[in-house]
Structure formats: structure tokens, C-alpha cells
Write a structure and sequence with these properties.
By secondary structure, this protein is an all-alpha fold. It has two domains: 224 residues, Citrate Synthase, domain 1 (Orthogonal Bundle), CATH 1.10.580.10; 103 residues, Cytochrome p450-Terp, domain 2, CATH 1.10.230.10. Helices cover 61% and strands 3% of the residues. The chain has a three-stranded antiparallel β-sheet with strand order 1-2-3. Helix 12 packs parallel to helix 14. The longest helix has 26 residues. It is globular and about 55 Å long.
Length: 355
């Protein structure tokens, strides 16, 4: 059952992967979380070393993929480019027609390893720079930052990026995960299922909130402006990006971790500006909507993660592709479970009335 992959208690603010609380998992390597989601249990030291070696050794993309990235329309959304790139990568996978569990696992490793490389290469090419080859000695998070910057990140930045991928890795049957499962249920190949997830994640109601949080914080500009602007948004009944969730009726546990991480980055960089703006926004929203009106509108996963990206100089256009880098392990776990069922997902039309 899919609940074994992920468990959420929206009233108590609990999130578990494979029965383990997210607070226990967030300090592990992303590779260990990927292994947990896909294979169902945490790896031992030897198992993790072998799995990481496979992932790190599969990071390179071939010349043809880079050629396609060079041919992308540089004015399109980064997610549109990523969707095209991942679809094209399938043509070079030697296991593309092998739908056995072993063949699917090999494809999964390549997808997890190469999607960060594709995202980083596209970003650098769009900005007039040559792609930076992946470094197999670096962690998943450190390697991604290295590939977009061309220089190795600080230890704190690498750890924060790693945790970002972990906190994004899985979240039950959200729109993109459900899209991937529907495609997998037809027994289509794993690349097709992951492209389905990317297409759903691209939508601004699903994957776009993090970038909008970054834009909102930048437009507010200072802690002094924050309360006034948020009060105006509340008065006009405008949506405040990064707040509220369809499942959580209390503080999103991922949001609480991101808040602490954003403070650590702010202190390390000696610049509390973005953190203080975010904190004032949160304080105002909770006072006006939670305490005065009783609405369960707390910071979600996107709010303080947007602050983190500001401190790490990650541009808004990369926010959703980065989310996909973390989430691909969760999508794959759900696809593998759906393949075992060998039963097509076929909802009835009347269910749409509930959406």
C-alpha cells in the first residue's frame, strides 16, 4: 500500500518515510533516503556504499543530451526544458525495454543520478557558460551546487542542499506523484512515468510556489515593509505564497526544519535580512489568520525553503527543477509499487466533483 511509502498526519504535523519520522531522516545522506524509498528499508554501511557508488558513477550525460540542451529555446520555462531532456535521455538507456524489477532499478539509478546533471547543464548553457562535469566524490547536494556554480560549496551549503532534497523526496499522493502512478499503472516505461510527474510539477499550483515565495520576499525588500504589505494582502484576500496546505492543519514539519536551516545560513553569512523579512511575514500571518480568525494557515515546505535559496543565490527559475531532483526518488518508489499491482488506475468522472 502507498501509505507504507509515506505517512502524513496533517493534524499533528507528522511526516514519515517508510515508517520513519522525517526528523530522524533529515541528517542522513540523500542517497540513504533514496535507497529507503525505493528499496523499502534503510541501507547498511556496505549497502549504502555500493548504492552511492552506482549513483555517483552514473551522473554523466552523453554528448547527444548536451546537444539537445544547446538546442532548447532559452526563453522557455526550465521545467519545459527538463521535461524534454528527460524524455530524450530515455533513448540512450540500455534498459529502456527491460521492465523487470532489475531493469527498472538500473533505470531508476540513472534517472536519480542524471536529472541533477541535466538541470545544472541547462542552467549554465542558458547563461552562456559551459556545463561543469559532475564530481563523483561529492554528495548529491554538494555535487549539484558544484555543477551550477563551477566551484565547490561550503560544508553548510552542501548540507542544506542535501537536506532540501531529502525534505522534497516524498509526500504521499500529491498531483505529480499521482500522475506518475497513473502512467505506471498502464505498464508504460519508467521514463514516461517520470515525465508525467514533471509535467504535473510544472504547474504553478503544485511546483511553482517556491519561486513565488522568493519573488514576494524580494519585492517586500525589508523587515519594515513586511507587516504592512502582508496586512494589505490579507485585506484584499490575496494568497500569501508559502502558507497553507491541503493536508497539514498545523505547522508543516518540513517547514519547521527549513526555518532552522534558513536561520543557520543567515547567521553563517552574517546577513539576517531575508530571514527577518520571512519571520515578520510569518508572525503577521499567524497573528492575523491563525490567532484572530482560527484559520490553519501556517508556513508550508515552500516558505522557508525560498529563503534558503535566496541565501544560496539560487535563482527562482531553478526552484521547481530542484524540487524535482529531490522528488524523483519518491516518484520512482510509487511507480515500483504500482508496477507490482499490474492494475490500471481508472477513477470515475463523478470523483472530479470532489476536487
Amino acid at each position: 500500500m502507498s501509505k507504507n511509502i509515506c505517512f502524513i498526519d496533517g493534524l499533528e504535523g507528522i511526516l514519515k518515510y517508510r515508517g520513519i519520522d522525517i526528523n530522524q531522516l533529515v541528517d542522513l545522506p540523500y542517497d540513504a533516503i533514496s535507497y529507503l524509498l525505493i528499496l523499502g528499508e534503510l541501507p547498511g554501511d556496505q549497502e549504502l556504499a555500493e548504492y552511492s557508488a552506482c549513483l555517483h558513477g552514473a551522473r554523466e550525460v552523453n554528448r547527444e543530451v548536451l546537444d539537445v540542451i544547446h538546442m532548447c529555446n532559452f526563453n522557455v520555462d526550465s521545467m519545459e526544458a527538463l521535461r524534454t531532456i528527460v524524455s530524450f535521455m530515455s533513448q540512450f538507456d540500455p534498459d529502456i525495454t527491460d521492465s523487470s524489477p532489475e531493469g527498472n532499478t538500473r533505470k531508476a539509478i540513472r534517472l536519480i543520478a542524471r536529472i541533477p546533471t541535466a538541470v545544472a547543464a541547462h542552467y549554465r548553457i542558458v547563461n552562456g557558460n559551459e556545463p561543469v562535469p559532475p564530481d563523483p566524490s561529492l554528495s548529491h547536494g554538494a555535487n549539484f551546487l558544484y555543477m551550477i556554480r563551477g566551484s565547490k560549496p561550503s560544508q553548510l551549503e552542501a548540507e542544506v542542499m542535501e537536506k532540501d532534497f531529502i525534505l522534497s523526496a516524498e509526500h504521499e499522493l500529491n498531483a505529480s506523484t499521482f500522475s506518475s502512478r497513473v502512467t505506471a499503472s498502464t505498464l508504460s516505461d519508467l521514463y514516461s512515468a517520470i515525465v508525467s510527474g514533471l509535467c504535473a510539477l510544472k504547474g504553478p499550483l503544485h511546483g511553482g510556489a517556491r519561486a513565488e515565495v522568493m519573488t514576494m520576499i524580494e519585492e517586500i525588500g525589508s523587515q519594515e515593509n513586511a507587516e504592512k504589505i502582508i496586512l494589505e494582502k490579507i485585506e484584499k484576500k490575496e494568497k500569501i505564497m508559502g502558507f497553507g496546505h491541503r493536508v497539514y492543519k498545523t505547522y508543516d514539519p518540513r517547514g519547521a526544519i527549513f526555518k532552522q536551516l534558513s536561520r543557520e545560513l543567515a547567521e553563517a553569512k552574517g546577513d539576517m535580512c531575508w530571514y527577518e523579512i520571512a519571520e515578520k511575514i510569518e508572525e503577521t500571518v499567524i497573528r492575523e489568520l491563525v490567532e484572530k480568525k482560527g484559520k490553519p494557515i501556517y508556513p508550508n515546505v515552500d516558505f522557508y525553503s525560498g529563503v534558503i535559496y535566496k541565501y544560496m543565490d539560487i535563482p527562482p527559475q531553478l526552484a521547481t527543477p530542484i524540487f524535482a531532483i529531490g522528488r524523483v526518488s519518491g516518484w520512482i518508489a510509487h511507480c515500483f509499487e504500482q508496477y507490482e499491482k499490474k492494475r490500471i488506475i481508472r477513477p470515475r468522472a463523478f470523483m472530479l466533483d470532489e476536487c
